[in-house]
Design goal:
This protein has 356 residues and is mainly alpha-helical. The chain has 2 domains: 248 residues, no CATH class; 71 residues, no CATH class. It is elongated and about 80 Å long. The C terminus is likely disordered.
Length: 356
């Protein structure tokens, strides 16, 4: 997509950025585990000096939860970049000449932020107002980032495990790393629970359940009781976001399909008429609404050489969209594609040697 006519350089740069993103989280997660273990040990050792030191362990748990979200962000970036490479590798010669040099990388990424975001919000329940977008609401509300309609989502093009019959394996690194971080976050709650134990040990006549624990002990028990649900909700939220990343719309395969949809949407929204071009953003948003109208049709629409012009003009209409999809899935349309030249010529296109 870069117009410097050297796709191999673009792919090299993208793969390096994706590698750096993943490596960044790997380093950060290992450092966080070391920091958490040392911090918890230091807090436990300092309890005999001051009971209030134990409350610092809540900060350790918050840091761990933040690092988990950084991991989701870093791997999302990597999947988006790897997905673009997969998008290039899947194009035949005709598609390559028509799509790969029609748009620069920054323009493509700008279009992605509209097209992909529209499709994402049509599939998943997401925060929609200022209150639900607050970090402690958006990150912990269990209904967010789940399919709006689970029944309709089953078997769709973005559900890799469903389509592979449950045999799809996206890797286990994130799952294992997140499990270790979650265990450390849970372990970080032990120091505050040591406060009432120290109070009981310091005065043998005190009873744990007789209401004779000092103020700091009850404060620690209360905060731990309130914090445990946050750890549970964090586990649900991170697990759901990881599922989307590894198996659903943010997976590498799904990103490749969305990149092609994004390029087609850009080509349709762009115009040689400068007056019309001033409405590019509005036209692109309208095309995105067509995709969002029926997200399951996006994969079929990417078989079109170009999107219809009225996608950028008319308001989304379900019947009209289904008519286009029916035409694409008809036996006649399939027969025309079968008679078309074989993909990638004789030997397939290599992104390392191809020229844009």
């Amino acid at each position: 997509m870069l117009r410097h006519r050297n796709v191999s350089t673009l792919i090299t740069q993208m793969r390096q950025e994706a590698k750096d993103s993943r490596s960044c989280f790997r380093s950060l997660s290992v450092q966080t585990m070391g920091f958490a273990a040392l911090a918890i040990a230091a807090i436990l050792a300092a309890l005999n000096i001051s009971q209030y030191v134990a409350f610092a362990s809540f900060g350790v748990a918050i840091v761990i939860m933040a690092v988990q979200r950084i991991g989701i962000h870093k791997f999302t970036t990597a999947n988006r970049l790897y997905g673009y490479q997969l998008h290039l590798e899947r194009m035949d010669d005709a598609e390559y000449e028509r799509l790969s040099i029609a748009i620069g990388w920054e323009e493509a990424f700008r279009a992605w932020r509209i097209v992909q975001a529209s499709v994402f919000e049509s599939i998943y329940s997401t925060p929609r107002n200022w209150f639900t977008k607050l970090p402690f609401v958006a990150d912990f509300w269990p209904r967010y980032y789940r399919p709006i309609c689970e029944r309709d989502a089953k078997g769709c093009w973005w559900r890799q495990s469903d389509r592979a019959g449950g045999k799809y394996h996206a890797g286990s690194y994130l799952a294992r790393m997140f499990s270790i971080l979650e265990a450390l976050a849970l372990f970080s709650l032990l120091p505050p629970l040591g406060i009432p134990l120290i109070e009981v040990r310091g005065n043998p006549e005190m009873g744990l359940w007789k209401g004779q624990i000092d103020g700091p002990g009850w404060i620690a028990i209360t905060i731990v009781g309130l914090f445990l649900p946050f750890l549970f909700l964090n586990r649900l939220s991170i697990g759901r976001r990881r599922k989307i990343l590894e198996d659903e719309l943010l997976s590498i395969h799904s990103c490749a399909i969305m990149w092609k949809a994004t390029v087609l949407a850009h080509n349709c929204a762009w115009s040689h008429d400068k007056t019309v071009r001033r409405q590019y953003t509005e036209r692109l948003a309208r095309i995105s609404c067509w995709f969002a109208k029926s997200a399951n049709s996006v994969r079929t629409l990417t078989d079109l050489p170009n999107l219809p012009e009225w996608f950028a003009i008319d308001e989304p209409n379900q019947d009209k969209l289904m008519g286009v999809v029916a035409e694409l899935t008809s036996p006649e349309s399939h027969a025309r594609r079968v008679r078309s030249p074989a993909r990638h010529g004789k030997g397939g296109r290599s992104t390392k040697t191809a020229k844009a």
